[in-house]
Amino acid sequence: MAALCTEEMELVAVTGKEVGRTEPYRGREGMRQYLADVERVWEELRVTPSTVQQDGERLLVVGRVYVRSRELGIRDLPAGWVWRLRDGRFVRGEVFADPDDARARFVELAPA
Questions:
Q1: How far apart are CA 9 and CA 92, in angstroms?
Q2: 14 and 21 in contact (C-beta within 8 Å)?
Q3: Segments in the chain below pLDDT 70
């Protein structure tokens, strides 16, 4: 996953908030840190995409996230992800607990 990121990539993710992170994950090393945080917080994480839509350099993924942790319990929630791409690499990712918010953000990012 880190190999698919640009050095300036930013990822805003719920897991960051769970570990007390206030800044986005940045670059390839940031993606590695995000994956390490996911492993530290969740004993099990399953992402099940149901739809994927790409328009130019924008990517929308809508689906569900199942996570399990002794401390935080079990969550099985709808979710959405919006990625901005450049040359097939991730530039920015945003995770949304509400798929409708992800859809709205995807439309907002459309070129004028």
A1: 5
A2: no
A3: none
